Amino acid sequence: MLHTHRLAAIAYVFHDNKFLLLKRNNEPRVWGPPGGRLKPDEDPNTGILREVKEETGLNINIISPADVWHGEYNGRILVSIDYLAETDSKEVKLSSEHCEFCWASIEDLRNKNPLLGETKTSFLLKDFEKAWILYQKIK
């Protein structure tokens, strides 16, 4: 069977109106929301619940999909479903994939705290702003 792309999911996880950001241990060492590639035939909703739990120890409540994007990542075509989610805990237990975490408001991100990065694999402020606007409308 010919594979045309990989499927991934990320979650903009909110707690007290702040985003959860994780900093990767390996290249690209960028800040971003939790998530990753889904297992073969894995339901995206199940996959994002698994990814967030594995990476942070948190249980999340999926609010809704926020975006779908398609692009190249590490030489492969990737399709990602971006979710809005909430958690009732801010107690993060990082996996070995990440070295740091923070809870950041949209104002923090606009003030480059933390600095999201400027590589083609960095998450962009506009992505967080889009998620923030959608979250405010739904909330």
Structure, described:
The protein is of the alpha+beta class. It has one domain: Nucleoside Triphosphate Pyrophosphohydrolase (Alpha-Beta Complex), CATH 3.90.79. It contains 3 helices and 7 strands, in the order ββββαβββαα. Strand 5 and strand 6 form a beta hairpin. The chain is globular and about 40 Å long. It starts with 5 loop residues before the first strand and ends with a helix. The model has no long low-confidence stretch (mean pLDDT 93).
**Distance between the amino and carboxyl termini:** 42 Å
- CA gyration radius, whole angstroms: 14 Å
**How do the helices and strands follow one another from N- to C-terminus?**
EEEEHEEEHH
pLDDT below 50 for ≥5 consecutive residues: which ranges? none
In the CATH hierarchy, the architecture is Alpha-Beta Complex
Would you summarize the structure shown here?
With 139 residues, this protein is α+β, with helices and mostly antiparallel strands.
Q: What does the secondary structure layout of this molecule look like, with pairings?
A:
Elements: E1 6-15, E2 18-24, E3 31-32, E4 35-37, H1 44-56, E5 61-73, E6 76-86, E7 98-104, H2 106-110, H3 125-138
Parallel strand pairs: 1-6
Antiparallel strand pairs: 1-2, 1-4, 2-3, 2-7, 5-6
Features:
Nucleoside Triphosphate Pyrophosphohydrolase; seven-stranded mixed β-sheet; alpha+beta; 139 residues; single chain
